[in-house]
Amino acid sequence: MKRFSSFLLALMLLFSLSACGEGGLNLNPGENNEDSDARFGYVGDTLSTEWFDFTVDDAYSCSEYQGYTPEDGNKLVVVTITLKNDWGASVDMWIEDFVIMWDDPDEDSGVEFPIAPGLSDDQFPSEYTLGINATKTGVSVYEVPQEYRDFSIGFMEVFESNTNPDGDEGNTYFVDFTPEER
After folding, report:
1. Which of 50, 69, 94, 174 registers the highest number of CB atoms within 10 A of its CB?
2. Residues 81/128, Cβ–Cβ less than 8 Å
3. For residue range 14-33, what is the model confidence (pLDDT) as tens digits?
4. Rounded distance, CA 117 to CA 75, Å?
5. Do β-strands 52-62 and 180-181 pair in parallel, antiparallel, or remain unpaired?
6. Distance CA 56, CA 47 (A)
7. Alpha-carbon span 96 to 108, nearest angstrom
8. How many domains does the chain divide into?
9. CA angle 118, 55, 108 (to 5 degrees)
10. How far, in Å, CA of 92 to CA of 180, rounded?
11. For the chain, what is the mean pLDDT?
12. How far apart are CA 97 and CA 13, in angstroms?
């Protein structure tokens, strides 16, 4: 059920982005600022959600990560994220909370979940709890199409709701970047 909820969140995030530009996701924050529910940043910026602050510390692309190689036509994007709980309670987190997106002018924008943990000890676990005032740094590895060079890491707030079983949407957060090749 948790995985299904995360999938629904990613779909809601993707559909909410379809109006951002003629071809789908527009990764230029200067052109998206009319959306008051969206917050934008770049690698090194700290964005504050309802429950935690997060910073994308580093992002690079590669053809292999810890022995894992992508399918033909794809590459890997490795993203290091630091989370800091600034809320007054523990926060349950899932690996699917942060998705990677790219703009495809010929189709709907692309979105992908991180590769499951197990490639390295640095990866975020499938599920974890971010304790009160705790900080956690981890890696998310994404397999994306080779031809794209500009990406965004996205997170969407979803609040529990008595009237909506899927929850109520809050703000969305995007960190735009072009990963360096390593």
Report:
1. 174
2. no
3. 444 433 433 334 444 434 44
4. 18
5. parallel
6. 9
7. 20
8. 1
9. 75
10. 31
11. 84
12. 11
